[in-house]
Amino acid sequence: MTTIIIIKSVEHHASVREILGSVVDDGERVYFLRLPTVRCLGPLIQEVNPMINYGVDYTITPLPEGYDVSTLVEFATEFDANRICIGISDRTLTGKARIDDLTQSILLHDDISGDFVVGEHAIILEELEYGD
Amino acid sequence: MSPSDRADDRRTEARREKEAVREKRRRGEGIGWNGRTLREQLAELEDKTEATDHYCGLSELELKNEDPIRYEQLYARLRGDLVTARETSKEVSATPIVEQEGELCYGLFTPEGDSIAVSTGIIVHVHTMSEAIKFMINHDYEESPGIEPGDIFVNNDPHVGDVHPCDLMTIIPIFHEGELIAWVGGVNHVIDTGAIGPGSMNVSQASRFGDGAYYTARKIGENFDLYNSWKKEYPAKTRTPDFLKLDERTRMTGCLMIRHSVKEMIAEHGVETFKQLSREAVEDGRRGFRSRIKKTMLPGTYRGASFVDALYEGQENVTREYAQENHIMHAPSELHIREDGTFQVSFEGANKWGWHPFNCTPAAIQGGIWVMLTQTVIPNELVNDGAYYACDFHLPVGSWANTQNTETAHAYAWHFLVSAWAPLWQHLSRGYFARGFWEEINAGNANTSNWLQGGGIDQFDKLHAVNSFESACEGVGARYVEDGEPHASAVWNPEGDMGDAEAWETVEPLPFLGRAVKPNTGGVGRRAGGAGFESMRTVKDVSRWLLYEMGNGYMTSDGGLFGGYPAASGYILNARNTDLEERFENRDDYPQHDLDPESGDFESKIDGDVTRRPEGISTPKEFDDYDMYLNYLRGGSGLGDPLERDPEDVLADIHDGYVLPRHAEDAYGVIVEKVDDEARHNSAVQGEWELDADATEQLREERMRERAETAQPVSEWYAEERERIRNGDDLIDDVKKTYESSMRMSTQFATFFRDFWELPDEFGFDLSKKAQKSLDNRFDSGLRPMWDSPTRGHKTWLDVGDEPYVPYTWTDRSIRDLSGPESTFGDREQAADDD
Under an 8 A CB cutoff, do A39 and B789 touch? Predict the structure, then answer.
């Protein structure tokens, strides 16, 4: 199984912990995709220690400035990702997760589909299937 | 290609590489591998290393396994290039410290700051530069001030990555097509750091603010050119600007040579091969260390303790009145060797730091121990930070070994550091003995002193400072199978030397009156410790000139082994306001040596104010022309019962100048007779001597009988000592303060101490008001830590977590109580399979 975790903010410790603890299984392959809004995942990795604490092998990859959703979907396709996870960064006044533009773009993309799950701190698109 | 063409090419290349780096940054990528930032790369490396028990998760050494010969060739080429860079660049320096003694070292590091290979020389810095690089990474230097091709960094801050501030390091990144693929660093011991007193390791300061200039991992240039601000700043902060400028050119020369070599290797073999080699070399180094430990040691806990004095009561020119007190360093040490080869050292019970410059930071302790381990544990293995990943240290926060306080002084951290190592030599030697590796056994090298330092207006009417590195040449500890080498090297620099007297005289206004092997300085034993030597210096053509001493005095930190005796302790000998000039003019005799301090020979040949005292440290004091100063370099420890030493060897010791004839009887039970007054084998002894074999045999039998008669059951000795401790009446305040400090530092040690001596639970030493105030003053100072983003590798620095990273056994807690070896490479089966 392969999981992509999209990091929009270095403060997303809770969402990363939730994904690694509740969604991803021990021994899975994880790709941390760092958006250009984040300069460095170092502090987050030092805090979470994904391999020590969750037993996952992982790679950190930066998405280039000016990327669009196609770049992201191409990445998911290339590595045949089974799920894409993204931290909840915005909420309604009643505390419900707000779907941000990036998540919405992924959901609406023609070449990718899957089951949509909302967790405590993260949104997960799983059972991914890819179009042509 | 001329040097200027090569420099132009280098700058052109740097500009091109810099553009590639900036383009990557514009795309949001870091300068690490595959677009990661360095901090991401370091975080990932540490996570994977600890999780997998292999460096960066490297379970297979593919490059090595596929073609072992090629792997060895590539590594040997890197190592050879580092050594060549050192040998070549040291000729650039003007100080004998570098040019004669070779107080210089280079290291090649991974992007994350782990050393891949090191040159010869002061390889203590195999790890200190590594810490400086990790500091820069963890403090986001990639963002600010930026890390780009052609950049130059400097560091000498011990809280960041150094032993003491006189070791200045130059660090430059090596880039390839926009990626930082390695770092190269060079470090050398400079002659003056601009401290409150002249010399590189002043001793009169109470705090770090008297240590001299600290440069905390600073960017000092770009495009391979130093900033004008740097070129103007640092020379003004030292008494010896020209020497420091040439030292810097030395380090730059070596770094650029190594950078060139790496570039050539990449051009020939490809960058992926270089990357793979750098990773595998560290993992290989780790496995080599682990495997060597498993082969040569027995699992278990080895326990010992060492002490050394630093006496400041009554010293002049100490910067704070409250610093005028005596200190004894207490270093209880435990070495845990586990079945999987795990190597863990604990200094639990170490006493509090003090208002003196002998405090250590973890980088100093860890770096210092590597240089020792390379000389005993891994002399034939890859020497790199693989050893760092194979070891763990517990250095109690707030102790002299880990002050975590930026107010503490560190100018001569080596004094405590070297002394604290002494039991480690013995721990390892006991393991070697048990496993039959007798050739590896070493009783312990010398406490590297005296340090002749000072400065003022020199023979060229210039402000100057001196730091004699004759201390790079001391006696080596006795081995199980051989005597220790006399006047050989220093524990921190296996390539050390005493240097040519003439070379020292070109930079020091301190002409040599004599230089000779010093008898009775190596520890006695079946195998004798290597003897030290001495230089008698005078002073010429100076004004307002200061000199001082630095070393062990009453106490010798190098205990002997297996019944051998410690090396001789230190003493100070000066003469001021002398009649030396008149003696020269009248062609009268004058002292050239002090080879037999009890003989009165020195005092009989000079008139003046003679200071002779059994201490090792003095603060700067004024000397004038024709004053005299003895520089006494120590010997190594002895091994085995001296009554078992072959009497013929003792006779040879006399003729070689290692033992005075009267001490042959005292120390070895050997009777010799003088048979010729004329023969002169050495400076210390006049005459030819013969062994009286029958008298020797008789005396030794008598000594053995005396031993049996005066021997005391341990139970009686224990009862007497317990009474001394309980009453405290005949214990000096300094001793009581030392133990009280350790007990306040560590409840585990306090419990152990009270249990061992069967003392009441509330037992504490009754201290004088002054001692009590001193402890309160320091314990109330709290912490001022420098590290605010500890990585996994620094858990030992700050006691992160509930469970000690390295367990200690001073009390009921035991290494066996832990569920498993938590630190470093824990899994026993995995380690056994791979290592």
Answer: no
Question: Is residue B52 within 8 angstroms of chain A, CB to CB?
Answer: yes
Q: Assess contact for B487 and B631: CB atoms under 8 A.
A: no
Contact residues on chain A for B55, CB-CB shorter than 8 A: none
End-to-end CA distance of chain B: 47
Amino acid identity, residue B24?
A: K
Q: Give a three-class secondary structure readout of B593-622.
A: CCCCHHHCHHHHCCCCEEEEECCCCCCCEE
Q: Report the distance separating Cα B72 and Cα B78, nearest Å.
A: 10
> Number of folded domains in chain A?
1
Q: Do B36 and A62 touch (CB under 8 A)?
A: yes
B774-833 tens-digit pLDDT: 999 999 988 787 766 555 665 555 554 444 445 555 544 444 444 344 433 334 343 333
The list of chain B residues with pLDDT below 70 reads 1, 787-835
Closest CA to B329 of B368, B292, B303, B356: B356
What range does the domain containing A68 cover? Answer: 2-130
Query: Which value does ipTM take for this structure?
Result: 0.94
**Could A52 and B47 be called an inter-chain contact, meaning their C-beta atoms sit closer than 8 Å?**
yes
Separation of alpha carbons B824 and B38, rounded Å: 22
Q: Which residues from chain A sit within 8 angstroms of residue B143, using beta carbons?
A: 39-40
Cα-to-chain-centroid distance, residue B459: 32
Q: Which residues of B touch A34 (CB under 8 A)?
A: 28, 40
Q: What is the pLDDT of residues A35-55, one digit of tens each?
A: 998 999 999 999 999 999 999
By the 8 A CB rule, do B499 and B469 touch? yes
Q: How many residues does chain A have?
A: 132
Q: Is A56 helix (H, G, I), strand (E, B) or coil?
A: coil
Q: What is the pLDDT of residue B828?
A: 38
User: Tokens 């023979």, residue?
Assistant: B459
Provide the shortest C-alpha distance from residue A113 to chain B (in Å): 28
Residue of A nearest to B42 (CA): A42
